[in-house]
Every structure is written in structure tokens, then in C-alpha cells.
Design brief:
By secondary structure, this protein is mainly alpha-helical. About 55% of the residues lie in helices and about 5% in strands. Helix 7 (about 130-140) crosses helix 8 and helix 10 crosses helix 12. The structure holds adenosine-5'-triphosphate and manganese (II) ion.
Length: about 325
């Protein structure tokens, strides 16, 4: 049998998914499913602990994200769907990796650097797990020997770190890890305020389970556009100044003509922000329609979803255990 290419990615259980997660990540997961690819898609519950302190929220959100995966089209017969914590060997691997990871390089990762700068001088800053999360993330990726990691643009430095660690180990122990590739078409979907849309920032996110009315209302009331534009007939600058609407038009329209038409009408002052937001809401609702239908039927299928995670966890664990046994032996650790 031909060796399958492992395509792997994960999502934190920090809340319901939004359009950034859907367009930047989950849609890609689905598009890579099948053929010679073996998808491995997990829910990063350990990574969730770095910021979420409510145990019930974590318990609940793991199932919610799993349902979102399934409703989006991830198929347990084609992909391995699992919770990170079902594979305890990942923790062990992250220790071997951490032992090769310079602290200095780690804290140069932009998100961590910003976080540390913000809390500089404070009694307590970010927790230790937060500082070391990119190393655990490298274990998530390298443990199953992933060849391709579809993620949003915000994750590039983290995947780079995993690639670096893989190369470092391969120099010492040839062929021990697959060096993972990134996808070419990464995106960053802005939230309503123009910053990265994020689950942890409820006010800026537009959820993929929101109704058309909610999507419309959120953009209408909070979507930040070109602030220099006062009247609908003023010429706008969609490319540089529209913060939350035009970039999403661009990311979701598969044919270039559609978003270029919007941009040209904005530049010409032929379409106002309110109308443009309405068109965007309609398009988003259309994209998400089939998802929402399937999601609805999964709502009360917790037993089925638990089963999927249980089976996926077992399969992922076997794969990671194989890698970890090799690494353990290579670095000189013997199980007595
Ligand atoms: P949190 O705010 O809790 O970190 P998040 O929305 O950033 O949540 P993650 O679980 O950290 O979501 O990331 C899951 C996947 O979604 C990653 O591949 C990430 O790159 C992608 N992603 C998250 N936000 C965006 C966004 N705004 N645009 C594109 N991709 C995104
Ligand atoms: Mn995130």
C-alpha cells in the first residue's frame, strides 16, 4: 500500500468556532481529506488549559468543536479525529523537544514576545504552559509524523519552530522526524474590530453557528470599515482602510471578479458600507448553510461524538507511541 501523507491540524477548545477558524482552517482540513492523505484533526484541550480555567467550559467545548468538525465535513472514516489529551505520549515527546529548544528563541515568537512585554514588571505574568505551548505544539505535529499542516496565518511562527526542531533532531538522528510543510494559501480573517478574529475575543468574532440575522446585525453595528468614509457616496479605500468587511469578501469569494466588483464599487462611491456589509452577511450565511443543518442534527448526539473521539484517540496514540519509542531510545532513555 502506498504510504499515506499525514495532514494534521488542531483547534483549541476555547469556544464555538468563528469564520476565521472556518475559512482559515476547517474548510482546508476538509479539502485535504481523501486521496492519499490521512487527515489527523484534533481538539487541543491541553492548549486550552493555558487560558481557560473553567473545567465545565473545557468539557463542553471539546464536544462542541468535535461536532463542528463533523458538521463541516470531517469524516471519521477518512480522518482521525481526536482529543490531544488522548495521546499522553505527546507530553513525553514535548519534554524531549523542550530539551533541545533554546529558551531565547522561544520567547522571540511574536505572540509570546508581546505577551511578555505587556506583563513586564508585573508580579505574575503568563503561566509557564503558555510560554512553552509552541514546544507542545511541535510535539502535536512531529509525533504523528505530519507532512502538511494547514493552519491560519497566525500559526506560521509556531509551525516554523516545529520545522526547526524536526531539523535539529534529524541532524542528530537522521530521518527521525518528517519535516512538516505549511500550506501556501494561509489567511488571516479580521474580526469586527479589524484585529484577528478569535474565539477568546467574543466581541470581535462572528460565529459559524450565528443566524443570518445575527451575522447581519454584528456587521451592521460593530463592523469597522473605512473610517474616513462618511457618506455612502464618498470614495472608499477597500484595500488599505476597510478593516473588517472587504478583507473577508476577498477571502471568501472564489472568483476574483466578485470581490473586485465590490472593491471597484467602493472606490467609485457606488456602494455604501451598509450595503456592502449586507452582501457579506448574505454570502457568509450561504457558505455556512449546509454546515448549520448538519450541526443541528449532531446537537444531541453526544454519545456518537464521544465514540468518534475515543476511536480516533486510540489510533492517534498508536501512531505517536511509535515515534516516541524511537525518540526515547535515540536520546538515551530506557524504560526499565
Ligand atoms: P483563541 O482566541 O482561543 O486562541 P482562535 O480563534 O485563535 O482561538 P485557535 O484554536 O487558536 O483559534 O486556532 C485554530 C485554527 O484556526 C488555527 O489554524 C488558526 O490559525 C486558525 N485561525 C484562528 N483565527 C483565525 C483567523 N482570524 N483567520 C484565519 N485563521 C484563523
Ligand atoms: Mn489562537
Amino acid at each position: 500500500m502506498k504510504q499515506q501523507r499525514i495532514v494534521l491540524s488542531g483547534i483549541r477548545a476555547t469556544g464555538r468556532l468563528h469564520f476565521g477558524n472556518f475559512i482559515g482552517a476547517v474548510q482546508k482540513f476538509v479539502s485535504y481529506q481523501g486521496g492519499d492523505n490521512l487527515g489527523m484533526y484534533f481538539i487541543a484541550d491541553w492548549h486550552t488549559l493555558t487560558t481557560e480555567k473553567n473545567p465545565n467550559a473545557i468539557r463542553n467545548n471539546i464536544l462542541e468543536v468535535a461536532k463542528d468538525y463533523l458538521a463541516a465535513g470531517l469524516d471519521p472514516n477518512q480522518s482521525i479525529i481526536y482529543a490531544q489529551s488522548s495521546v499522553p505520549e505527546l507530553m513525553e515527546l514535548s519534554w524531549y523537544l523542550a530539551s533541545e529548544q533554546a529558551h531565547k528563541q522561544l520567547v522571540m515568537i511574536p505572540t509570546l514576545k508581546d505577551l511578555l512585554k505587556k506583563t513586564d514588571g508585573a508580579e505574575t505574568g503568563p503561566n509557564f504552559a503558555m510560554i512553552s505551548y509552541p514546544v507542545l505544539m511541535a510535539a502535536d505535529i512531529l509525533g504523528p509524523q505530519a507532512a502538511l499542516v494547514p493552519v491560519g496565518e497566525d500559526q506560521v511562527p509556531n509551525v516554523e519552530l516545529a520545522r526547526d526542531l524536526a531539523r535539529k533532531f534529524n541532524n542528530r538522528f537522521p530521518g527521525i522526524f518528517t519535516v512538516p510543510e505549511m500550506v501556501q494559501d494561509m489567511v488571516r480573517i479580521p474580526g469586527l474590530d479589524g484585529e484577528k478574529m478569535g474565539k477568546s475575543d467574543a466581541a470581535n468574532a462572528v460565529g459559524i453557528s450565528d443566524s443570518l440575522e445575527e451575522i447581519r446585525r454584528k456587521y451592521a453595528t460593530r463592523g469597522v470599515t473605512d473610517e474616513k468614509r462618511v457618506a455612502a457616496t464618498d470614495p472608499g479605500d477597500p484595500y488599505n482602510r476597510c478593516r473588517s468587511v472587504y478583507p473577508v469578501h476577498e477571502a471568501i469569494s472564489s472568483d476574483e471578479v466578485a470581490h473586485r466588483t465590490i472593491a471597484q464599487r467602493c472606490v467609485a462611491g457606488a456602494i455604501g458600507c451598509r450595503e456592502c456589509k449586507g452582501i457579506l452577511a448574505d454570502r457568509l450565511a450561504e457558505i455556512i448553510g449546509p454546515f448549520q443543518e448538519r450541526r443541528h442534527t449532531l446537537e444531541c448526539q453526544n454519545d456518537y461524538v464521544r465514540d468518534v473521539l475515543h476511536e480516533g484517540g486510540k489510533r492517534a496514540r498508536v501512531m505517536v507511541a511509535e515515534t516516541v519509542a524511537k525518540v526515547r531510545e535515540a536520546v538515551g532513555i530506557e524504560l526499565f
